[in-house]
Amino acid sequence: MKVKAVIMLAAIVFAILPMVVYTALNVTFINQSSSEAFDAEIIAEAENVSSSLGIIVNNAKNNLEVAGNIEAVRLAAQKGETSKAADNFLNQFVNENPMILAARLINSSGTIIAGTNSGEQFSSFEGYKTSADEVLVFDAISGDSQQYSTMFIKKKVNNCLLVLSYNITGTNSIISRVTSNTKFLNGKGSILIVDSNGNWSAGNGFNKEIKNDTSDEVWNAIRTVKDGVSEIVVYTASDGTVYYTAVSNVDGDKGLSAIARCPESKVINSSSTTIVIAAIIITILAVVAAIIVSTALTRPLDKIEETLEYIRNGDHEARIGNVANNEYGQLSRAFNNVIDEIVVSEDRYKNISEMSDNIIFEWNFKTNEVIFSNNFNKKFSYRASSEHFGDSFLLKAKLHPDDVDRYRRDLDQLEKGIAFAGNEYRIKNIYGDFIWVLFRTEALKDKEGKPVKVVGVMVDIDRAKKSEQQLTERASFDALTELYNRETIENQINNEISLSEVRKSEMAVLFVDVDDFKHFNDNYSHAVGDEVLKFVARTIKAEVENIGFAGRYGGDEFIVMVRNAETNNPAKIAERIIAKLSSGFEPAETDDHLSVSVSIGIALIKDDYNTRVEYLIGKADDAMYSVKKSGKSNYAFI
Q: Are 562 and 582 in contact (CB under 8 A)?
């Protein structure tokens, strides 16, 4: 009988049949597992919604911070009087942020001095005045003879209140986007969002006192859980329905809470000890039988394993003899064909490596031997007396004095299986000149994860590196910022694309634009505007030193290039630039401390090295404009 048929029969008799019996006997355990999955899904939904609420809370606080820091708003708040500039800004701010229903600046008398319904008396002023700052709260605002359900956040600006209101009514409201898109437990589950006052919303207006719709236990969970998920809370509604509920908070007991709940009906039965013992016995018998049969069937594989061991030890002439006229014999013939193809492939590999300008090498840690491809002799004059590492070019190479220490450190790391960190060095070639060489390595590890061999390639990048140096030497700089000018930055990026292709690395271009730069010129002076540009230039240059370069592209626009973007995270660089500029500086022309906001667009090159520099900068520019449209002072990828 064919081996395939025997194995199939054994699987049916000794595996599938016992498992069918075992499954039938253990149906009673399914309900218990379902109960655990039920609880886990409710908790997972509460965590997921909490994550979405976190985004809502952060966006609301960011919007409040941005609006409150606008000069026109601060001046209006300081005077407590109607301001056309502040009114224009707040109305524009509402128009540019679709989720914001209204933005109001209210003086101590309850009069709206800027923003939505400017000039009118704010009917809910007393209640808003006593609520906590920077906390999202549900409320209803009267106007036009009707009530508007909103979620608001406010803070004190001088002697005034700045209040942002968000729509929570309808399918496109900020809350319904969280609740209506969340379906779990076959649509039986539901989500409630609760504020710190106990008011709740399911995405269509809001209701008072969550405990009236749930229970005191749920309300206690909301007040005690700190930015996490509670245990399952079970309560009985007024209609007799039993609900299972999980609670997750954002910003503790002063923030928003997500309640995931679902009615539960389940029956958990216990299986008898007899059924468990019977199932265990059947399983043991099946395993023993399977071991016996599989051992008998796999004896012919011992010969295959023995031959593989010969090949692994270097006997490439070893081949597997046909075991029988069955699948084992077919496997043996197929394996022999693969070995023959590997031998041919190795010969082909040697020929290709010798014809290539790139030098390939191997370092075997077990034998401590280093082997280079034959084309090594075309580039370097060194001849090793043996293949031992102590005599190898890796240890004896004549490096430029400035690169020796770095190379030695990297070589020590390479011996541990860690790829070269700074992998570009100047090495003396066959003509006695120092040339730039790029090292790329890969560690091969055993089944325990220990490095057993390093394979690598040495690439001559001398022409590209010297072209880069020549560009730097001939570079023209912007007189104001002392950064590269537009023409130079484009030439430098174009050369860096070529180097990235040789290095097989990623690179990133950041397009940095100063937000509201006209504000500095108009409200201070052009001299202050120049100091702002210098401050931005200094900050960017310090951030990318040794990992890239920067230039002034024109006006208040800057270009930053980051090499090896797979390790030098451009997003983190953008975050640090934004943070450092936001901390501000004191210009010589004024006593004010000026904070600078920028919008940053990021474009990446991973393997599309034919990209034109104009296209790359254009993509980064597009990403920057997407940031401008979504609120500024941030970064985005294209």
A: no
The Cα 317–Cα 532 span in angstroms is 74
- Residue 3 φ/ψ, nearest 5 degrees: -55, -40
- The one-letter amino acid at 2: K
pLDDT digits (tens, 9 = 90+) for 568-597: 999 999 999 999 999 999 998 788 899 999
In this predicted model, what pLDDT tens digit does every residue of 145-157 receive, in sequence order?
Answer: 456 678 888 888 8
User: If you count them, how many residues does the chain have?
Assistant: 638
pLDDT in tens, 43-96: 888 788 878 888 888 888 898 898 888 988 899 888 888 889 889 999 999 898
**In degrees, to the nearest 5, what angle opens at C-alpha 56 toward C-alphas 54 and 61?**
95
Question: pTM for the complete prediction?
Answer: 0.39
335 vs 306: CA distance, rounded Å: 13
Give me 49's structure tokens: 């919604």
Within a 10 A sphere around the Cβ of 522, how many other Cβ atoms? 11
Asked whether the beta carbons of 562 and 508 are under 8 A apart, the reply is yes
Q: CA–CA separation, 638 vs 493, rounded Å?
A: 18
From residue 235, how far is each of 61, 213, 244, 263, 589 by CA, in Å? 34, 11, 7, 10, 66
Query: CA-CA distance, 567 to 572, in Å (whole number)?
Result: 11
CB-count exposure of residue 520 (10 Å: 0-12, 13-18, 19+)? buried
The Cα–Cα gap between 168 and 323 comes to 75
Write phi, then psi, for 524 (nearest 5 degrees): -120, -90
Residue 548 pairs in a beta bridge with 562
Integer-rounded Cα Rg, in Å, for the chain is 35
Residue 628 Cα distances to 63, 518, 597, 618, angstroms: 14, 15, 11, 15
